[in-house]
Design a protein that fits this description.
With 391 residues, this protein is of the alpha+beta class. It has 2 domains: 172 residues, 6 Propeller (Neuraminidase); 171 residues, Glycosidases (TIM Barrel, Alpha-Beta Barrel), CATH 3.20.20. Helices cover 19% and strands 30% of the residues. It contains 6 helices and 23 strands. The protein has a 6-stranded parallel sheet. α4 packs parallel to α5.
């Protein structure tokens, strides 16, 4: 059996039902279009841990008892999953697609999950006997309206909710504004070309792009980040649908102030650890090459539709995968064909992926650039194990 080699993120989720029994969910570093995690459980207060099957997404976990638990999160933030066997298997609950699901609020016999939709926070109670029969629940904080472009952190129980709004830095305890005076004062003081190119600056990516006005404000107020990643499509991005906020006009305006990192999310390796969730590359290397050629046509077409001209570099998002040499052969065949297809159409080709895969497989390809993720605390792509700086 192949050893899992992952780059783990920093936003862990921990849930204990008593002093001895608990679960630990660690996210795996990926692009914003994916959500993977690893899950462990303990029955002896953390003296020993055993790893459970890979969960369907990363996010926040809570357990009511040794069998019943919930997971909220996922790539789009609106996935709600439940387990009846202590995390051995998970089943998805149906929630409105336009919402973001907050961490579950658990009491002795019920669970309430906050759903953020538009400018409001609502609450849905999930009945353990009818997982898909979510219904509005009375919540101590009510259906509070929140400002646009606000991040919401919610914790507590069904009987009492704490909610933090950022960047406003406002904390509510139930209906009461409980923001510490020092935090309020600190916040008050703080608030008185279309071609892409290879950069060495710092950057970030978003599942859905922010408005040009927001990007302009960020650029004026923060000199640290100079590049922004965005998704131009692909069968594994947002269910094959385009970013509703992205268009050629956005790219033209933003390119005047930011470096651009266009990302295409096509089929993934068949050795991906959650194959049931994604469109996969063929196991056969020859067929995989044909698929790579077809994906290059789609990627180049999407780039052209957004006004990205030949000479621009497009990154293929190939998430981490385990497996033996046959997995490598399939991925390499697919990606090299994709690279060739992009070159034929005048575009440069890059790959985003895991350091392990970059070191083992991507280094053998005719790439123009490579971009990988690592939560090693260093804001650099240099000297990241196990990659070689000559990659």
């Amino acid at each position: 059996m192949a050893t899992k080699i992952d780059t783990l993120g920093r936003n862990a989720s921990l849930s204990f039902i008593d002093g001895r029994r608990g679960w630990l969910l660690m996210p795996i570093v990926t692009s914003s279009a994916f959500s993977f995690g690893r899950l462990w459980a303990t029955s002896d207060a953390g003296e020993t841990w055993h790893e459970l099957p890979e969960p369907p997404a990363a996010g926040s976990i809570v357990f009511l008892n040794e069998r019943l638990g919930w997971l909220t999160g996922g790539a789009t933030g609106n996935e709600v999953w439940h387990t009846r066997d202590g995390g051995m298997s998970w089943h998805r609950a149906i929630v409105p697609s336009a919402t973001t699901a907050g961490p579950a609020l658990t009491g002795p016999e019920k669970v309430i999950i906050p759903l953020i939709e538009g400018d409001a926070v609502h609450y849905v109670e999930f009945d353990p006997e009818g997982w898909h029969a979510g219904k509005p629940a009375a919540a101590p904080i009510g259906d509070r309206m929140i400002p646009r472009r606000t991040a919401v952190a919610i914790r507590g129980t069904p009987d009492h909710v704490w909610m933090l709004l950022t960047p406003q830095q406002t904390l509510y305890s139930g209906e009461r504004d409980a923001t510490p005076r020092s935090l309020r004062e600190a916040h008050r003081m703080m608030t008185s070309d279309a071609d892409t190119r290879i950069h060495t600056d710092e950057g970030f990516d978003q599942m859905f792009v922010s408005s040009f006005e927001t990007m302009h404000k960020w650029r004026e107020s923060d000199v640290t980040f100079r590049d922004v990643g965005f998704y131009i499509g692909g069968r594994n991005y947002f269910g094959g649908k385009p970013d509703p906020n992205l268009n050629a006009n956005w790219i033209q305006k933003v390119a005047a102030e930011w470096g651009l990192l266009p990302i295409f999310v096509g089929p993934q390796s068949y050795c991906n650890n959650t194959p049931d969730k994604y469109v996969l590359i063929s196991r056969d290397a020859a067929k995989a090459a044909g698929e790579g050629t077809a994906q290059a046509l789609d990627a180049a077409g999407a780039a052209a539709n957004y006004g990205l001209t030949p000479g621009a570099i497009i990154y293929y998002d190939m998430e981490r995968y385990d497996g033996d040499s046959s997995c490598s052969a399939s991925v390499q065949s697919f990606l090299q064909a994709w690279i060739n297809g992009m070159h034929t159409r005048g575009y440069r080709a890059g790959i985003y992926g895991a350091p392990f895969n970059a070191s083992r497989d991507f280094a053998l390809l005719d790439l123009d650039a490579v971009w990988f993720a690592s939560a090693n605390g260093q804001d650099s792509v240099w000297s990241v194990s196990p990659t070689n700086n000559l990659l």
